[in-house]
Amino acid sequence: MVTAVSQAEIYIALIVALHGAVLAMRLCVSLYRS
User: Phi and psi (nearest 5°) for 26?
Assistant: First the structure.
């Protein structure tokens, strides 16, 4: 059984991972255009 705390931690981890992927993609695009 998954508790609310672990669900919140998983949700936050997904948000952080997604944000990091977006920042990395933007960095690659900026380096590619320069």
Answer: -65, -40
